[in-house]
Amino acid sequence: MAGDLIVANARIVTAEAELTGSLAAAGGRITGLDEGATGLAGAVDFEGDYLLPGLVELHTDHLERHYTPRPGVRWPAVTAVMAHDAQVAAAGITTVFDALALVGGRSGEDRLETLRPMVDGIRQAQAGGMLRAEHFLHLRCEVTEAHVLELFEPFRDDPLVHFMSVMDHAPGHRQFADLAKYREIYKGMLGMTDEQLDAQTASRIAASRTYGVTNRDALTAIGRERGLPIASHDDETPAHVAEAAALGMVVSEFPTTLAAARAARQHGLQILMGAPNLVRGGSHSGNVSAGELAAEGLVDILSSDYVPVSLLHGAFTLAGKGGADSGIGLPAALATVSVNPARAASLGDRGRIEPGLRADLLRVRLVDGVPVVRSVWREGERVA
């Protein structure tokens, strides 16, 4: 083996197995993979640390927290993207789909005043070689939003957009089937009085009834025309899943019940669950736990959602590492954060340690049951 990067004495996790061996990469691609030691000069000695594929994140809304770190504060977009990217890369994520919500604002143009700078910031930072991970866009389309199609239109043909999801966050179903839980979360988050919360609840339910079906149909038609992978969101019932499948959706994001997850499997949808749910041992919204679904083989993809560092931690938890009593094994667990999301997003060139694929690689050490990212390479170049 010879190349730009040579790794030796690594515990390599491929899609099928774990092995101790060596890897070489050149021109941004993996060129060789061997069991046993290598005598080639210049090899990076992993000292028995794990060599893993770079993580692929389909759904994180973390960027907006950097762009609007306080109410009424907008940070310069390029540096906001860079700060977000640094945290993502340090977590071992080499491909990230920044999820931007098409919702909010007094009008479509009002919300676009926030969305456009973030997208332009990603584009400028990526073109300038300022970013460690590769960034794409995931458009989160809220069907209860009267102007969601107006919000989608400027990004319809944007080459950064590679994924979309269709959401209905009206209280009384899906994520917030438990109205008491909805009130508890939003009253604390928004500081509303009971009367204000009652008015907001009624308004959102009415918007779902008025716009939901029309917007869902229109958005999925646009997505199919663009050839975008489309995800449903917070499926609660088998009927929700059947509707999603009929509209051509390929991923069920965060199903809220065991029945919905089982239906997703029957309809051939990939099931995406939150790594924070898995690491914490339950859903913050009171819905089905990722661990319960994993026990039935109903988790295909993990997402860090709102905590980037949870993605790798979730995969090791799923594998039964770090003190867990049982698990599915590291190759299968890592597939939920690498090859499976890559396939769902039609990115066949990454997500596995295999000759010919991108050299997106991680050096990871397990310390007291916690996976610690020590080094990150994207296309063979060390970025963290």
UniProtKB/TrEMBL annotation:
GO molecular function terms listed in the Swiss-Prot or TrEMBL record: hydrolase activity
Organism domain of life: Bacteria
Enzyme Commission number: 3.6.1.63
UniProt xrefs under Pfam families: Amidohydro_3 (PF07969)
Limits of the Amidohydrolase domain: 79-364
Enzyme class: hydrolase
UniProt entry tagged with the keyword Hydrolase: yes
Keywords linked to the UniProt accession: Hydrolase
Record keyword NADP present: no
Gene3D superfamilies linked to this entry: Metal-dependent hydrolases
CDD domains linked to this entry: PhnM
PANTHER family membership: ALPHA-D-RIBOSE 1-METHYLPHOSPHONATE 5-TRIPHOSPHATE DIPHOSPHATASE
The protein, known as: Alpha-D-ribose 1-methylphosphonate 5-triphosphate diphosphatase
